Amino acid sequence: MAALTTSRIEELQLSSNHLTDSSCPHLASGIRNNPTLRTLNLSVNNLKGPHFRDLMAALTTSRIEELQLVGNHLTDSSCPHLASGIRNNPTLKTLNLSDNNLEGPHFRDLMAALTTSRIEELQLSSNHLTDSSCPHLASGIRNNPTLRTLNLSRNNLEGPHFRDLMAALTTSRIEELQLSYNHLTDSSCPHLASGIRNNPTLRTLDLSGNNLEGPHFRDLMAALTTSRIEELQ
């Protein structure tokens, strides 16, 4: 990591290296003010712990554009550190947090920081997110000027607050939304309908692996006729 600071490396793959929280200060020193590194893949390690904050603090002064943190045992307690890393970050465009467990009260911190980040693609699949996360997701995407791709697949967003997420979708700039395998049912169809009806930006919507059969499915199909969707799964 010390040598990384004087290299010209633009892409570094460190996935599946049994890295732990104790590696975070060294990773932080490697990326802090590094002028060339653009892509960093730290997936399938175990970076959860008190020093994760060091890595996120260094992220704010790096030039990284893509950060992969898939499968790192990150939990709700990691969200404030993630938030500090992306808040007003001028370079980060892609953040992959899939296969962690971010559900909890601090998830709102991450979503609040999303509103002032420059992130264009956010992957949150398989994070044990539930209906209670929907208001925080809604605040993160509402009028967000940069976010274009949001992957929420393989969570459990079915419930009364799902309407909040769909209401915020109407004023977001999202072009691709992944909602596969979210235990969505027929009762979600009116909210889905309100989210896509006359939405000017959404082009791809994935609803695979849900259970939308029922009388309200007609609402979704009626709204489809006035949406701008080009691909529907």
From TrEMBL:
Highest taxon, organism lineage: Eukaryota
InterPro entries, per database record: Leu-rich_rpt (IPR001611), Leu-rich_rpt_Cys-con_subtyp (IPR006553), LRR_dom_sf (IPR032675), RanGap (IPR027038)
SUPFAM superfamilies in the record: RNI-like (SSF52047)
Protein name: Uncharacterized protein
Organism: Staurois parvus
